[in-house]
Amino acid sequence: MPAKSFKITKGTPCFYDTPSEAMGHNKRAFCAKCGSRLFGGITDEGQGITASSLDDPSWFRPQFDIFTSDAQPWDYMDPKPPKFEKYAPSNN
Predict the structure, then answer these.
(1) What is the pLDDT along the chain (92 residues), one digit of tens a residue?
(2) Domain ranges within the chain, ordered by starting residue
(3) Which pTM was predicted?
(4) Is the separation of the CB atoms in 67 and 86 below 8 Å?
């Protein structure tokens, strides 16, 4: 999602950095009150949004699943989208 198309409407998130194979680090944002993850993968190009943080996630249709190597056996994944053990191949 382009960073310009995203706006926080209430509160100020807390941030936490973790290592990332793709970017060197992953800056993640959490709700300062409850700790729910809001977004992550912040770069100059945009950021990843956690679908569960959207007011109405019904329009969201995943294009692929990444890091399936870390999936729990009890976690159902829709069989239709392509699956990748780590990152999806780059389109560059």
Answers:
(1) 566 677 788 889 898 888 777 666 778 888 899 988 888 766 655 677 777 667 776 777 788 888 899 999 998 889 999 999 988 887 65
(2) 3-51, 61-92
(3) 0.58
(4) yes
